Amino acid sequence: MRHDAGFTLLELLVVLAIMALMLAAIPGLALPGVNAAIWAGKIQAVAYRLESAHDRAVASGHEIVLGAADLQSDGLVASLPSADSKLIFFPDGSVSGGPIKLKFHNDRRMVKINEVSGQVALSEK
User: Fold this and answer.
1) What is the annotated signal peptide range for this record (predicted)?
2) Considering Cα of 50, then 120, then 34, then 104, what sign does the dihedral take?
């Protein structure tokens, strides 16, 4: 009788199958963190577009008009108080329009713009 040290092919396959199942579960655990990072990036992009429109209006001396469609991106839905609402950035730095509601999957946030200064503020849900 011969006794060799080591593992059989069947034992190695079982270990590999268990490892594959464990690795398959990891992305599901990390998904909420990934969605939060994507959401934060989309909010930053909206804030940048709003601040950029404000700065362009002040620098050019002309009104800059943005609609909800100008603020949307892949998976992000932006809505203004009414369907025909527009954000108007004036050369004096003021803004007319209203709060912007953002929705990404099941998460909702509201972006408010100070009508006098044009400062952008994010509120929770």
Assistant:
1) none
2) negative
